[in-house]
Amino acid sequence: MSASLRWSLVALVALIGVVVALVSTLGGDQGPGTAAPAPSAPPVGAPPADEPQTVVDAGTRETVGFPECRDSAVPATTAGPLAGFMVRCMDDGSTTTLGKIQADRPMVVNMWAYWCEPCRRELPAIRDAQAALGDRVRVVLSHTDPSETKGFDTLAALGIEDLISVSDQDEELPSLLGAPPVLPLTVFVRADGTVAHVLVEPMDTEQDVLDAVEEHLGVTA
Q1: d(CA 92, CA 90)
Q2: CA distance linking residue 206 with residue 219, whole number of Å
Q3: Rounded to the nearest 5°, which phi and psi values hold at 140?
Q4: Each residue's pLDDT expressed in tens, for the chain with a length of 221 residues
Q5: What is 66-133 written as a DSSP string?
Q6: Measured in Å, how far apart are the chain's first and last C-alpha atoms?
Q7: Which of 34, 99, 147, 186 would you call most buried, defined as having the most Cβ atoms within 10 angstroms of its Cβ?
Q8: Which uninterrupted H or E stretch holds 185?
């Protein structure tokens, strides 16, 4: 085959490819029985639209033994951007501040939501890390969604019942920290209330959590 013929065939094949791509991009008349393109799926972890605010009733709260939010024997942390931030405790439905929950010790606050799949995968790792850290670090799960009910039910279904859990129903905590509107988010708070770091990615294993606590708060398991 001559060189000129060979290059002519290459050019023809390229032209056919361009035409096919153009038709695919622009669409065209679909004959009978031709399926329409499937709609694109929503992004993973997208919040539902118009989520109503819901609160867990007292009887349901009694079915799950979440730890008490506050340690009345220890003074509240009074400094830092989170000290006065109000949340609803999942254990009894009362409201309190993160400063009272922190109680002058290093604190990790994990912001999550029931519809966030990476959050759900991360929760068992956080639970296991808390067991290893003991009372040296206060670990708090903050359900960042209007529906406390769905957050409560999700934790119960996953067996995450031994961590302090609260509701940020107005979804204000990420904005307070100047964090991007994504979940999960984890904030590492020093004992004096100052923010050491805001982590904008999931921690997939117990060791990931322990490494982050050691790096940002200087506490080892």
Answers
A1: 6
A2: 14
A3: -130, 130
A4: 433 323 333 333 333 343 333 333 333 343 444 333 333 333 445 677 777 899 999 989 988 889 999 877 789 999 999 999 999 999 999 999 999 999 999 999 999 999 999 999 999 999 999 999 999 999 999 999 999 999 999 999 999 999 999 999 999 999 999 998 899 999 999 999 999 999 999 999 999 999 999 999 999 99
A5: PPPS--TTSPPP-SSTTTT-EEEETTTS-EEEHHHHH-SS-EEEEEE-TT-HHHHHHHHHHHHHHHHH
A6: 73
A7: 186
A8: strand 185-189
DSSP, collapsed to helix, strand or coil, labels residue 165 as: strand
Cis bond leading into 184, ω under 30°? yes
- Which residue is associated with the tokens 């994504």? 182
Return the closest-CA partner of residue 88 out of 75, 79, 97. 97
Here the tokens at position 92 are: 């009894």
Spacing of C-alpha 136 from chain mean position: 24
Q: How many residues does the chain have?
A: 221
